[in-house]
Amino acid sequence: MMDTDIEQLRQRGFRMTPQRLAILRVLHQAGCHLSPLEICHQVQEILPGMTEATVYRTLSFLTEQGLLLAAHIGGGQLVYEITGHDHHHLICRRCGSSQQIEHTLLRTLYQQFQESTGYQIDGMHVTFFGLCPECQKNNK
Ligand SMILES: [Zn+2]
Ligand SMILES: [Zn+2]
């Protein structure tokens, strides 16, 4: 997985720096979304000198290069994860619990959007908000 990342950067004329590698390693190991602050803490265990500013800059670089996915999870908060299977998220606006939705479920919808608007949609990582089953129960 990391080898393909290195290759992907190299083909675009970028080097895999220790900073980039440290962030990718942290997110590979986590296997889920992390906030920039969580990434900061874990990266600093690998590279103690890495500043918060560098972490933020490296996160946006890796996202631009398609190696990371960013998702808005509400409240202006962004989280990051490794690019893998196409998926989306459902987030409960009350308790914050979340669930993944496979992209295959939305493929037809995407096609319809694209045909009717002529747009090519590249947001393969969308967050939907709602109330989870638990919170709906407690609502009554
Ligand atoms: Zn995601
Ligand atoms: Zn909930």
Number of helical segments with 4 or more residues = 6
Mean pLDDT: 89
Q: How is the biggest beta sheet arranged?
A: 3 strands, mixed
CATH architectural arrangement of the largest domain: Orthogonal Bundle
Span between termini = 47 Å
Query: Which quaternary structure do these chains form?
Result: single chain
CATH structural class of the largest domain: Mainly Alpha
List the strand order in the largest sheet: 4-3-5
Question: H/E series, N to C?
Answer: HHHHEEEEHEH
Count of domains? 2
Helix-strand makeup class: alpha+beta
> And the CATH topology of the largest domain?
Arc Repressor Mutant, subunit A
CATH superfamily (homologous) name of the largest domain: Winged helix-like DNA-binding domain superfamily/Winged helix DNA-binding domain
Strand content: 15-25%
Task: Record the SSE blueprint.
Elements: H1 2-11, H2 18-30, H3 36-46, H4 52-64, E1 68-72, E2 78-82, E3 87-92, E4 98-102, H5 107-117, E5 127-130, H6 133-139
Parallel strand pairs: 3-5
Antiparallel strand pairs: 1-2, 3-4
Helix pairs in contact: 2-3, 3-4
One zinc ion binds next to helix 6.
